[in-house]
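<purpose> Linking amino acid order to shape
<body> The protein record starts here
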Amino acid sequence: MNIKKMSVLFALIVASMMIKAQSITGDWKGTLSVQGVNLELIFHIAGDDGNLTGTLDVPLQGATGIPVDGVAFADNQLKLKVTAAQIVYNGTLQGDSVVGNYEQAGMSLPLTLKRFESKLPGNPALVTTEEELKELAALDKGEYKYSVADYFARPNASSFQLSPNGKYLSYKEKDGLKNHVYIKEIATGKVIRAIEEKEEPIKGYGWINDERLFYAMDNGGNENYHIYAADIDGKNALDLTPFEGVKAGILSLLKEQKDYIIVLLNKDNPQIFEPYKLNVVTGDLEKLYENTDPANPIQGYDFDKDGNLRAYTKMVNGVEMELYYKNGETGVFELKKKTPWDDSFGIIAFNYTTPDPDDAYVATNLDGDKSRIVLYDLKNNREIKEVFANAQYDVSDMGLSRKRNYEIDYFSYEGEKSEIIPVSALYKAIDEGVKKNFPGKIYGIADYDDDENTFLIILQSDKLYGTYYEYDVKTKQFALLYDLMPQLKEEDMAEMRPITFKSRDGLTIHGYITLPKEALQGKKVPMVVNPHGGPQGIRDSWGFNPETQLFASRGYATLQVNFRISGGYGKEFLRAGFKQIGRKVMDDVEDGVRYAIAQGWADESKIAIYGGSHGGYATLMGLVKTPDLYTCGVDYVGVSNIETFFSSFPEYWKPMTEMVKQIWYDLDNPEEKAIAREASPVYQIDKIVKPVYVVQGANDPRVNINESDQIVTALRAKGLDVPYMVKYNEGHGFYREENRMDFYATMLGFLAKYLK
């Protein structure tokens, strides 16, 4: 055979192989039936010049992107291997199906895979390429002492907790990009891995009792959390809430019933949540109360320490709250309070120090502007006495000691800084010790054992990320446990300074400015304006902020304004922002910018605006309302169109639609709908003339990816520079370390392009 004929034959063979490879590439879905549970498996097979690769998703377990390290296809026979999970699949291609057998750890089950189209959320064609984003990040040039990773790589160890008996210390420890949970036996120093983080990040964990831990995960940031449990040696791991499309949350750990917790699930109706008593060993569920009226749902449940439902709060017509309290004699829940939703009357804890079972500590602002804490007789619907209040700020938290017969330990509130007001002798000793040994720091109680022998104290300041100390109650001594970010030296960090100014219509507005050293030396510096999310009831706080410190390391000041509608300043300040989102709320932000310029801190020709969620919306509205004030903006998971934002609410937000209408705008009212259009950036594209960087999590259940797609499409149509980052394994904000660092690296490049 001559060389030419051989070449033609070889080409035909290669083409034949590629045709076969292409016939198997794509997305394949099948369902395993395992011990009465239907487990959906999704294989994604991709081909490149005949070389096949694959990944596996197991939605019920919240696992996506598991590498398939062996993909072979020849003569219509498909073989898939996931070595790490001991999975082997062999099947025969028959049209749009693969009929075969699934084997794992000695188990063999029939499995038929069917071809389907796996569609990425949003419009992937809009997304800026990885190469272009790397080019953007490269614009952050300079000799800087600290990198993005120094601020945003997770600590090597974190989330320290004590077991109830005080014998064990638990913590999360890094392993590459994973953060596993470890248990250290304090007496021996022996350490074991209790929970292994796999494809999905562990979003939170804690002790249920001395033998068992819980942990929570969702799927790609969709916020449909599952609650899992495992023994402290890692055995007997169990998905306690194995329900697809259901959001689970822990309401109460029943200290008096060690194998039980109370969880909330929207299992029977996605719009409403009901309480269940959950056995953390067997997974058995018992519904404790029915939430039967989706139009007027129960929004909060108050259980006592023994797991008895004593009260619940019902939302009526979307805008009123009704508190029902159980009559101990008749067992009937009786209406005690009916208030507008933005008034507060909430049970903090039942009072177990009195023979009267109907006494409780309540946070309320019904007879004033600020929330205060009172002792209240729920049966007779009367206030017994005020126990704590602050004239300037809302008070809503307190601590009680289970060991010391529920003695009051402290009250807390947030003013310019976080404030703890100690009451008990124990907390007065802790408070005195912190102030003496760590002046200028704020502190929090991270954990303590049931016998109150050891406390874990976390210290922080505007220049200190966080340091854990063990406090010995008997000796009153502090011992360093762990410095979360030892690479960040306090002397190199920037000052976060509380500020106060008057809005143009006379309101007192609070906030913070983080100032790089150049600003302290009298130089006007570029500034990043950072409106917070929410917007209602949320506020910015004093303390270490990795974002503002990162910006300061590049020479930028950061302004954070607690504009009207922010939380903690009383209900009148909150209400002053209703139906003013995108309008007077933005005036407050602008007034803060003018204040910073007047103080000589900011170079008015180099001001950027950046925020997430409502802050992303405020970024776009800032560029609409005051286009000459800002040089550029960064919109992170932000709303661009109030109409489409409302229409894409997750199911469990829909009962609150009327409340949202009071906060934002009532689209059923023609006048307010017109205002909402004026306050929707996507309808004001002609006013946006500055570059915008848009960043989105593809699985965001709160701000749908369509919000970002809309604004990117519209802004690019008029020729603006609009880089667009989408992460397909994230939701409302980026949780994964690698994604966060990608985001901040590219944002620094974007800011450098327009501020330097």
Observations:
- The CA atoms of residues 6 and 70 lie 31 Å apart.
